[in-house]
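Running this now, will post back.
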Amino acid sequence: MPRKIRELVKELEAAGFVNRGGKGSHKKFTHARVSKFVILSGKLGSDAKHYQEKAVKAAIEEVKR
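Update: finished.
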């Protein structure tokens, strides 16, 4: 069962990412140590897509390095 968008947002915020807003249901997260943005689309209660989960995982791992 896929995780929810709200779970991915909590993981990003716990790792130090900051929500810089976005248009509509899109949320743009930034971090000082990560070169790329992480953009999540969908409402907080929606199921996350597999590529969104991969992007969050990769961004958090880049922060840990």
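The beta strands are 18-19, 26-30, 38-41. More later if anyone needs it.
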